[in-house]
Amino acid sequence: MTEDAHETALETDALGKRYGRAWALRGCALRLPAGRIAALVGPNGAGKSTLLHLAVGLLRPDAGQVRVFGRDPRGDSETLADIGFVAQDTPLYRDFTADELITMGARLNRRWDADLARDRLTGIGIPTRKPVGGLSGGQRAQVALALALAKRPRLLLLDEPAAALDPLARHEFMGALMSAVAESGTTVLLSSHLLADLERVCDYLILLQTAHVQLAGDVDELLAQHRTLTGPRTDRPEAVPGVRSVIRASHTDRQTTLLARTTTTGTVPTDPAWSAHEVSLEDLVLAYLGAADTHRTEVTA
Amino acid sequence: MIWLTWRQHRKQLVYLALGLAALAALMVPTGLSMHDTFQDSGLADCLDALGTDVLLSGQVDTCDALRRQFTDEFNSLTMVAILFMVLPLLVGLFFGAPLVAREVEHGTHRLVWTQGITRRRWALTKLGLLGGLTLPLAVVYALGVTWWFAPVAANGTGRLAYGFFDVQGIVPVAYTLFALALGTFAGTATRRVLPAMAVTLGGFAAVRLGIETLLRPHYMPPEELSYSTTGGQWLNPAADSWIYESGVRNADGELVSSGLIGCPPHDPLCLDRGGVEPGSSNWQLYQPGDRFWTFQFIETGIFLGLTALLCYLAVRRIRQIA
Amino acid sequence: MIEFVLDGRSKVATYMQLVLQVKQALRVGIAQPGDQLPKVREVARTLAINPNTVLKAYRQLELEGLAEGRPGVGTFLVATLAGDSLPQQAELREELVAWLRRAQAAGLAREDVAALIDTTLRATLDRPVPDDAH
Lengths: 301, 322, 134
Description:
Order of helices and strands of chain B: HHEHHHHHHEEEEHEH
Number of domains of chain B: 2
CATH architecture of the largest domain in chain A: 3-Layer(aba) Sandwich
Mean pLDDT of chain A: 88
Helix content of chain B: 55-70%
Number of domains of chain A: 2
Largest sheet of chain B: 4 strands, antiparallel
Oligomer: heterotrimer
CATH topology of the largest domain in chain A: Rossmann fold
Radius of gyration of chain B: 25 Å
Number of helices of chain B: 10
């Protein structure tokens, strides 16, 4: 991995974007260290695309700021050159061949690795002389990825790139992406609502919910900080020893199950009546999303 | 950027060139035949001999028979003028409207605006190149139509008349660039191709008609002409005048008839047949034909100004699209 | 060369699955010292996993003294887990196969066989093999 571990690839500060009177993203503060593969997770409409579009300079913030390697992505073509972007549904000029798209990239970018893109595509058997409109969805996604990688970007942003693909094509797409990361060490921010895709791929998590950042951090650390706790029914789960905050609680007549942030990393509760289990990324994400839902209904009720 | 613009629009450009070639194939033979008839029948010499004075005196309209003959033969062809008026609009519909709208509709703006050039440059280059490519085509078209229409215009209606002014000289070039800018702007506003085309169509027609009917007659104050109903004077058909209003005024200056009257001197019966009293005079409000180029420059200026404004607004709007 | 597979339903961390597969291969002799491990890039591509996960697995193997990274070339195995038992493994395996056929003939289903082996293992060896527990 070539990037300096202390460098920041993407940083936002009180970032906000409004469509009309509704905020699509508000008060977003996060810092993505370079060299990470980060998952941008959240339900549809949570602001994932908005955040990515702000990061690639397609959108202008209505509040706060966004920095890519310390620079405003709306600034100049130099910053644009450092960012690779694969937009949702991997749009391409459908009457262009892959070869022509690669030529296009060469004309529009000062740094452009046409051979890399061409080798990558021929390597996985994608015809480069056929209009891309005639390719399968998976192949088009691969072309879009190859184009983004040919920029040799330091930050690669992908907006639900695999959402519309069948499982095999999705696996191949993620494989191609991971192999490119292994080679270049580029930082990746990948949005998806398919958690299963991300669990093995991402080492950093950004969870968006209703225009806010719910949770952000290193996946291993987040997993180490959270536990599922099971014990006798209690109406004051915050008081359970070892619990710092309760993310989600469910109760039966006799038992209470909590997904909680623990006071110290990896501790087991001191109360012998309670047992602790490790959580998966999916458990964690679902708990936070569910917690926000509950919170919202309480507020509106 | 040049390569991309060419690659994206080459089909339309080829179709446009083919369309113009087909049009030329139609217009060149008919134009030659019109010019030939115009010369060979003696109409050209006859009209030349009349000069460009607004009034002719002491002679009858010697070219009248030849003019009728020419009109009978070629009148149907002048309907083509309507087609000529629509041509600039096509550039707006098929180059302007899809320029941004198709990108947004297909999402490809997110591909092309995230490459290594700013979208401001993308927009300016595209507009510049397409404008630069359509400009010579428009000039060729304008010159061609001016040549084709010259005999018809010379034969009475004049170059300033509606439908004639609009397809000759330099205004067609300005209309073409305006249509391109209007289409582009409409695309940034609607962000979909078909609505953008509809807005372009409506906007082009509204602006053209509005300026033509509301502004153009006021570019310069019209002139008035009064002449005796019995002075043996005639309006020169070769004068190229754009007549707003004409008729017979009585001694008090009231308009009593919309037709003009020419009677021999001292023939009250003739005046009576025409329904006017002695002492009345023929009158017309008109723009002299020699103002053609002044009007052309004014109208071209207006449309180029609108073009610049629309380009500016389009580029500004493009920066809001994500 | 080892070909990694992932068990999607396993609770075991991805990197640990890779480590265990290398150890397993060393134990049964499929892999031997001197063998090169698959390139990080290849593993990341075929399994569609984060290359850092592969690196972490390889580092773990290096820490345990089983592998060694050679800059610019790759990661190579340098030790084995087969021990002295390897020569006898073939014979033992044959006996096990014969036993399994007998179990099959006696009408034991796959689950019955697995349960029988599992309980016998625990009863006989008293505790699980250290490398398989976490």
